[in-house]
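Lab notebook page, bench 4
Experiment: in silico fold of construct C2
Operator: M.H.
Input chain length: 437 residues
Purpose: comparison with the prior construct
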Amino acid sequence: MRVFTVLGPSQSGKTTLIDGLTGLEEQRPQVLDIPGVARVTQFGFMGDDWTAIDIAGGAENLATAGPALAGSDAAVLCVGADPQAAVLAAPYFRLIEEAGIPCFLFVNRVDAAEGRISEVISALQAYCRHGIALRQVPIREGGRIVGAVDLISERAWQYREGEPSLLVEIPEAVQGREREARAELLEALADYDDALLEQLIEDRQPLTGDVYETATAVLQHHDLVPALLGSAEHRNGMLRLMKSLRHEVPGVEAAGKRLAQHGAPLAAGLLADHVKHLGKTVLIRALGAGVGNGRMLAGKTVGSITGLDAKSPQPELAPGQVGLTMKSDHLSAAQVFTEDEAAPLPDWAQAHVPGFRRLIEPEHERDEARLSAALERLSEIDPGISVTQDPQSGHAVLAVQGPQHFRRALAKLSEGFGVEVTERTVPRPIARRCASP
């Protein structure tokens, strides 16, 4: 099983993109939904098993994105075809680059693009330290994008509503732009491949298979960010993106190497939740062999592991597989596990210090102890939260990533733990005057 995380600004079409990918083959995917946080989808494609993690948009959810990326094989950054909105992609580029994880850029809603795709790529490049390499150029009719030409295979595809694209001849009007864009792509790839560089210098046409191999190596080393085009809503560009993921994304071994600073890891905690009647659940990914029910992980035995439906037993996870742990309260998200210990994920995967602070207290005094226990549980499942105590009142101070995150935390306290609270601003410390000498 391979895993990829889909990131992007709010309203960029991430969820629709994953629905398009899972709909390429007739199947019923398994879905785990953590409202407002993430949606995890498992599906099959051409005989391979996949897990896609859709992180909710907005800067406040970057705390969740780090652990998901840490346990993934690749990232897909989904953005709209609007140069003016490129700045919204900046936080995601920054996190992906810190992670050092292979990344595809998917320019979504190209059917509604008003300007040139090259302008979108140029605007995005301003916020990405790595070069962005355009892998397709659009085909236009009447000012609208109706298809794309793959710059490696030099095949043209015409979009069809809700159906796989149709293979067509490269339109004459696009041929000049295609040759120019392909030369730019080959030059970008040749910076990382001496054999390809030599062929270009000698004006020899490289074989398509060799170019694909170079593109795969460049992606896996995270040297360039390849950009693909499409419209998830209309199911355009889905097959090309999914085939690129299948052929170019590395296996679980690469993720294990990235997290090996504390020895050979067995698993990583990606997401966590507290579910009524089930308690704490942690979505883990096995990075090595030996992860299963009753096995030692992080110094204690694992209670049970299920599929995303929290019902289907999975007694053991093969390397690369993803499952939900239950009755395993010693496990948490944002951690990497060996057989004997749990260690925090690398610094880049850790949440920013929460800056939105509110003082909370239970509506009913009898719930004081329940609130304290609930806050402890909440901080275990949400890496973006911290809980302290106000020295003046003695009440709890809940620190989160922002107002939206705060509202979600209060909803979890109410719906998940049955504790209603009131909230107010944290009082400022009283300044003391120095006594006159």
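Observations: The domain at 356-425 is CATH 3.30.70.870 (Alpha-Beta Plaits). The first strand starts at residue 2 and ends at 7.
Next step: discuss at group meeting.
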